[in-house]
Amino acid sequence: MPSLKETIDQIQPLKKEAMDLCQKKLNNLTKPPGSLGVLEDIAIQLAGITGSTSPSVKNKTMLVMAGDHGVVAEGVSAFPQEVTPQMVLNFINGGAAINVFCRHAEAKVVVVDVGIVGDFTHPDLIQKKIKQGTDNIAAGPGMSYDEAVKAIEIGIEMAHEEVQQGAALLGAGEMGIGNTTPSSAILAACIDLPLEQIVGRGSGIQDEALTNKIRVIQQALDINQPDATDGVDLLAKVGGLEIAAMTGVMLGAAAHRVPVMVDGFIASAAALAASRICPKVTPYMIASHASMEPGHQHALRLLGLTPMLHMNMRLGEGTGAALAFHLVEASTRALEEMSTFADAGVTSS
Ligand SMILES: Cc1cc2ncn([C@H]3O[C@H](COP(=O)(O)O)[C@@H](O)[C@H]3O)c2cc1C
Ligand SMILES: O=C(O)c1cccnc1
């Protein structure tokens, strides 16, 4: 399986020539130039990623990474930790929002245990547990540097396996009660903004708990002093096992020249860490939607990504990414199936 180092070395810039050819191809289709807006931007990005002016994203996989967080002991979430394995079972049984949206988008869902607390096992749950959740980041590092590398490499391995099986578009989703706290800490370490502008209510905490969450995140940053120039250090000290695995999915996708959909706030924290590990990864990313978590817009700005959808969503799991799969596929279908001015006998300007 490719190591983190080998994966980083494999990531190359987008192919400019294919992007120029794709722009020309789009301009010959029966529509005013540029009139499909962001769909045209995506088509060009996909051409640069794949090197083809007829990219297909029919085969899509959503990799849902699950892990727990010791920091929940500080009262940072509206829900108890046992909801993580309960929701993972729901994913396996096909009853969660991510299952519904992936069925609709004809995408495969793969669920991976990177660090769920407890001994929950299931034949359909990929078992890659590194440890029983992270340690409490408000008291010290969530995990060791080596454990963070291992978690990233699990994401790389999963991306590798899905691409080997034909996936042409990947999504990185997650489940982990408490994970908006480490995600906020990662972002806060990368940006010079007051925590009040970054930290949100996650799955739905009230005012008092929000004040406490901000205090806990400040304490995590003060105690751990994460190095924002080192994505692995960020993930190890104030991140999470499933967040690190999502970082790995993104790096792995880029190494294989496969586009990767960045979901909401937690995915954007994983993407930030990925970009600090290898800045060449971001051109392979597509941002699905604008999350209601206040930090999300700042994370996307740092990444240079623009979200496609504005749906007031704040769920995670990969749900926004699954919705956006439709749009990415629509852009490839336009490129492939629309008539040219010449073929349709339509006069161009
Ligand atoms: C039933 C349920 C289903 C979810 N699906 C995703 N999340 C989302 O909420 C969690 C993060 O929010 P916080 O940091 O406030 O705990 C993550 O598991 C995320 O995936 C859920 C949360 C709940 C309660
Ligand atoms: O945007 C997200 O990913 C998100 C927001 C709130 C709770 N869980 C996930």
TrEMBL record:
BP-aspect Gene Ontology terms: cobalamin biosynthetic process
UniProt pathway annotation: Nucleoside biosynthesis; alpha-ribazole biosynthesis; alpha-ribazole from 5,6-dimethylbenzimidazole: step 1/2
Tagged with keyword Glycoprotein: no
GO molecular function per UniProt: nicotinate-nucleotide-dimethylbenzimidazole phosphoribosyltransferase activity
Alphabetical keyword list: Cobalamin biosynthesis, Glycosyltransferase, Transferase
Documented EC number(s): 2.4.2.21
Active site: 317
Pfam families: DBI_PRT
Glycosyltransferase among keywords: yes
InterPro entries on file: Nict_dMeBzImd_PRibTrfase (IPR003200), Nict_dMeBzImd_PRibTrfase_bact (IPR017846), Nict_dMeBzImd_PRibTrfase_N (IPR023195), Nict_dMeBzImd_PRibTrfase_sf (IPR036087)
Catalytic activity from the UniProt record: 5,6-dimethylbenzimidazole + nicotinate beta-D-ribonucleotide = alpha-ribazole 5'-phosphate + nicotinate + H(+)
SUPFAM superfamilies in the cross-refs: Nicotinate mononucleotide:5,6-dimethylbenzimidazole phosphoribosyltransferase (CobT)
PANTHER family in alphabetical order: NICOTINATE-NUCLEOTIDE--DIMETHYLBENZIMIDAZOLE PHOSPHORIBOSYLTRANSFERASE (PTHR43463)
Entry similarity comment: Belongs to the CobT family.
Described function: Catalyzes the synthesis of alpha-ribazole-5'-phosphate from nicotinate mononucleotide (NAMN) and 5,6-dimethylbenzimidazole (DMB).
Protein name: Nicotinate-nucleotide--dimethylbenzimidazole phosphoribosyltransferase
Protein species of origin: Tindallia californiensis
